[in-house]
Design a protein that fits this description.
- The protein has helices at residues 20-29, 89-92, 128-142, 149-155, 174-177, 205-209, 221-237, 249-252, 259-266, 272-276, 322-341, 351-354, 362-372; strands at 12-15, 33-40, 43-48, 59-64, 67-72, 96-105, 108-112, 121-126, 159-163, 189-193, 198-202, 217-218, 283-289, 295-302, 312-313, 316-317.
- The chain is α+β, with helices and mostly antiparallel strands.
- The protein has two domains: 12-237, no CATH class; 249-372, no CATH class.
- The protein is globular, with a radius of gyration of 22 Å.
- It starts with 11 loop residues before the first strand and ends with a helix.
- The model has no long low-confidence stretch (mean pLDDT 95).
Length: 375
């Protein structure tokens, strides 16, 4: 196939790095707003972008438990960074959604519902672990009897340009969760960065169409071999791991393990881990009104099982201790999530480790319980 047409689905092609701007232009012409990584305020964040110059080219990020810093990379890679505190759920399952509002006009209350409008987003630079996180949230919001219409409308209009990982952070453990470092499904285009070019795998008809007039060429065996080597190197860089073959029963057998209290003594109940997690989905409803009692609004906002009020019901609190709330989060993520949705609730991105102020590491918690708990 010549570069003047478009490649078939499942084809692998190579593209000059600067030609990524052509894909951006095609996406904008198709009506998409581009959301991608950019360096700002000492972090790699997800925000609207228009040009390749806004990408964090030559930027690396350092991850350790409770530690995150940016640094410059000598090789000038475009996607040398890993995941930041933002995840794509911010755009699919927003932190705040107005469910309805009421306004009193001429003595009558008028109910107003938000317009059934959903932005048309192209997600640029979605990591394989985050692709899996999106698929997990699809199960949560769309795969059951009750579907979330707000998530559904947004999800229908998403274009996914994935980026395979060329480096692993010290917090990553995606190989243990079988979620990376290579994207295997769920993308429109998947990009692997090579020193002098990008290799792209076409995952959908929409992805194929976005390559028109970009100067792509069919990938050679040499190109494919180099891309495979990049991913193998990334796997070798990953030292954290989590054994999953005995989950969830191992956790269910150890609900009274002393480790829960030991970890709770360190935990600040700040909810950082749930806010940065790409799969956590808990919400609450907040009602507000103005001082003149002429308007009121009901809003759905993110919530966290780490917060005391989250477990409060009529007659008392189901989880009054931090020990019980930490245990609830971890056992839900790694055990009862499987019972509910048929899949683990963790993708091994390591965000909860990096952004925990006291450096609590879920992989170490599971190891400790397994080593000394009920077999």
């Amino acid at each position: 196939m010549s570069a003047t047409g478009v490649p078939r689905i499942s084809a692998s092609v190579v593209l000059p790095k600067a030609a990524l701007q052509g894909i951006f232009a095609n996406l904008r012409d198709a009506g998409f707003t581009l959301i991608g990584p950019t360096a700002r305020d000492g972090a790699v964040v997800l925000d609207e972008i228009r040009n390749i110059e806004e990408l964090p080219v030559g930027v690396r990020d350092e991850h350790r438990p409770g530690h995150y810093r940016l640094s410059k990379s000598a090789d000038g890679q475009w996607f040398a960074h890993n995941v930041g505190a933002h995840s794509w759920k911010t755009f699919l399952h927003p932190p705040s959604i107005t469910l309805y509002s009421v306004t009193r006009t001429s003595g009558q209350w008028v109910l107003q519902r938000p317009e059934k409008f959903a932005p048309k987003y192209a997600f640029i630079g979605v990591r394989p672990c985050d692709l899996h996180a999106i698929s997990i949230q699809d199960r949560v919001f769309l795969g059951q009897q009750f579907r979330d219409p707000y998530y559904g409308r947004r999800r229908e209009q998403i274009f996914l340009l994935a980026v395979n990982c060329s480096t692993a952070s010290s917090s990553c453990f995606c190989t243990s969760m079988h979620t990376g470092p290579r994207a295997t499904e769920g993308y429109d285009l998947a990009l692997t960065e090579l020193p002098d070019t990008f290799l792209l795998e076409v995952g959908s008809e929409a992805g194929s169409e976005m390559l028109h007039d970009t100067g792509w060429q069919p990938a050679t065996a040499f190109d494919l071999g180099r891309a495979t080597q990049v991913l193998q190197n990334t796997e070798r860089q990953m030292h954290r791991e989590m054994r999953t073959d005995d989950l969830p029963q191992m956790l269910y057998r150890n609900l009274e393990h002393s480790r829960w209290a030991e970890t709770a003594a360190r935990c600040l109940s700040c909810a950082n881990c749930t806010m940065v997690c790409p799969t956590c989905f808990c919400t609450t409803v907040k009602d507000t009104s103005d001082l003149r009692a002429t308007s009121a609004q009901r809003t759905r906002i993110w919530d966290s099982c780490f917060l005391l009020d989250f477990s409060h019901v009529h007659g008392g609190n189901l989880r009054p201790t931090l020990r019980s709330r930490y245990r609830q989060w971890l056992t839900h993520k790694l055990a009862s999530w499987i019972d509910q949705f048929g899949v683990l609730g963790c993708v091994g991105c390591g965000r909860c480790i990096t952004w925990c102020p006291v450096g609590i590491d879920m992989t170490e918690e599971v190891k400790a319980i397994r080593a000394t708990g009920v077999k």
